[in-house]
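Weekly sync notes, structure subgroup
Attendees: PM, AL, DS (notes)

Item 1: joint prediction request from the bench team. They want all two components modeled as one assembly rather than separately. Inputs as received:
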Amino acid sequence: MIGTLESKVPPGPLPKKWRRHQNNSRLVAPNNRRRFEIIIVGTGLAGGAAAATLGEQGYNIKSFCYQDSPRRAHSIAAQGGINAAKNYPNDGDSVYRLFYDTIKGGDFRSREANVYRLAEVANAIIDQCVEQGVPFAREYGGLLANRSFGGAQVSRTFYARGQTGQQLLLGAYQALCRQIAAGTVKMFPQTEMLDLVVIDGHAKGIITRNLITGEIVRYAADAVVLATGGYGNAFYLSTNARGCNVTATYRAYKKGALFANPCYTQIHPTCIPVSGDYQSKLTLMSESLRNDGRVWVPKRREDCAKPPNDIPESDRDFYLERKYPSYGNLAPRDISSRSAKEVCDEGRGVGPGGRGVYLDFKDAISRLGETTIRERYGNLFDIYEKITGDDAYHSPMRIYPAVHYTMGGLWVDYNLMSNVPGLHVIGEANFSDHGANRLGASALMQGLADGYFVLPYTLPNYLAGQIGKRPSTDHPEFEKAENDVHARTKRMLDVNGKRSVDSFHRELGLLLWDKCGMARNAAGLQEALARIPQVRDEFWANVTVPGQGETYNQSLERAGRVADFLEFGELMCRDALARDESCGGHFREEHQTPEGEAKRDDENFADVFAWEYKGDGAQPELHREPLVFESVHLATRSYK
Amino acid sequence: MNFKLRIWRQASRDARGKLTNYEIKDISPATSFLEMLDILNEQLTARGEEPVAFDSDCREGICGTCSLTINGEAHGPSHPAAACQLYMRQFNDGETVTIEPFRVRSFPMVKDLVVDRSALDRIVQAGGFVSARTGSAPEANSIPVPKHNADLAMEAAACIGCGACAAACPNASAMLFTSAKISHLALLPQGQPERSRRVLRMVRQMDQEGFGNCTNTYECEAVCPAEVSASFISKMNREYALASLRERVGE
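Output from the run, pasted for the record:
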């Protein structure tokens, strides 16, 4: 049913494409905007910014989030910063360099024109946020400060202590609050989207569950925007918030939207290691720590049990500095994570279970003084101490990679519209800008770019042809979708088995981490593909979900999300198996250079893999969008 | 480690609530407080009892979702920290731990340990923003901001909106929350045009929501996970006095 995937990238030289597209885009006149209803699901950086901006322009927005307040979306937890090519430090930065670093960091698996546009609009984001009152770090002269981040050789990251995501989100939230007060945005907190309604091939509504009352409600709109974040929680343990889930995008997939590159997941190199089976989540230590911290493990296995301060400098292996002398501790995330896994696999890991490496600030403290380090990273050192009980000013931190971000997502064209007309997807929920690996401080940039400066220009291309076409919620498709939601809820509650929802989630997570984590191979993926349906079958035969559907029921919320992860996990593995090359965060053990680096196969795999749902139990169909590189030369990534 | 738990159970806003006793055993000291509750809920589910409803999301102290009063203290005994940043090693083996929701008149009960804090959102909606239309901002470095002001604004802006300040206050006042936003924006040049209007509207909304007044007990500052200083309350009072004077006498 789907022909070739049309990226709708405008013609012309790369730096002129976006301007040209803007000039050729359709517009909706101010007096017509109030005739449109737009549903935006998710209130993180992308969804919050889009709702605020489109509301301000005069559209009627319905904004949904599962949290009790839009201010709590998980963007809030981003620590390090946001990139922009302002070149304030005068160190050679430019829009082109930000673009090039991002596309190279993504291992040449993202769409060139989208990435260039991202780099182009980044500067306006900084202007906008400053105007909203985001308290970015400043120099004594009152001007904005920058710091460096992984995968770049310039300082282009703007930050607000180690709480940049919080401050940017509060900026978007406050802009959203202004529109709520103005009546252009109607806010539905504690409301979870459980299905997408597609009428005559167009996305025209959603079915939601009110998490407080359990009521299932239909909402119709002229367009639906999903800004529902990533699927990292498929792994159970990740740095995502507990509630983060794949349900909205997965339900859209089951209604015909293509899911692109689901195997691209980012394992962040600097997280606090796992400490026990009961653990509910992992905590990230911002990558900015790698600016001043040095990563090492003992050279010899027998030193691993020694207190780190007793191991002399000469017996330490600063493996990132050794392997990547020009980037050193600032090597990109996928490379740093894999290197940590490698040294731990060699038996040189430290801490319980041998899954950890040191991140040491001793040199930075003796060079800059403890006060400076405290000023730069104080809150991160505090977090570390709270969780581990250890003082990182005096002995090195122990860190290990953890699932952090997902580059895959629903397939979108240059307008950020999926293959289902009317369904737009922004932020982490789409696939378009980060390829096979995201660079640090780029997620905040993309979320806000999509929400403030891209979607508001591209959405009218769809809306302009849709005046008066909004269906009523009495349409049979709404009826059917609502009945499906009720039936599924009932089915879950009726199983009445013996195992808790979390036990299934944990089992799936361990399986994915093991077979579809930092390193993958065909045999392991096939094993996972055989195993996941069994776990899923057991879920539907033996899960226990206490309580009822028509009440506040946290177990039921989780059960629905886990049920979707149990299907989605299979799609991840299928994608990882089909992508028979290594690239960025997708490391297939069969494809590596003699030095153990990811080996791409541009000949056969310089494409987006977009999967089409074909029914439960049926194999999804693979569609490929060839990635066309007009301006960059596909180079082998080297950070040496 | 073993603990005796006394947990507030209340089926809904209108139902009668009570403290119910539970025992939990073999908890590792490295377990977080909320993970301990997860374990309890797994055990309750296995026994066919209804699990305890409690709020949490990021579990790293930044989203402000968790909202427990532990042994009578908002967010528990270890400050500054949100409840999700507490670890069982901070409790004594065999200790009895009492867990209640944030009890504030303006936070209606939802279920068990979950309350409705939408009043805080409405205070921000009343004026806790800079009206900066997307796309109309000047170049970011065109207005220098003294580092001291920017840092102070950041200290206020660090508020996570959890509502512990109101829960800890004997008067159930949300002044620390409200003053943090007012101060954050009043300290920056971008916040100046709406400075008077903002403080008047936010304070009036705060009163309308039924929050109490400040009587300088500083309980709010003591429990604030983001270490927001109570001195912002004095700043808010000054801002408010000035703005109402202006409003009365005109420009």
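Discussion: The beta strands of chain B are 3-9, 18-24, 68-70, 73-74, 96-101, 109-111, 114-115.
Action: AL to compare against the crosslinking data before next sync.
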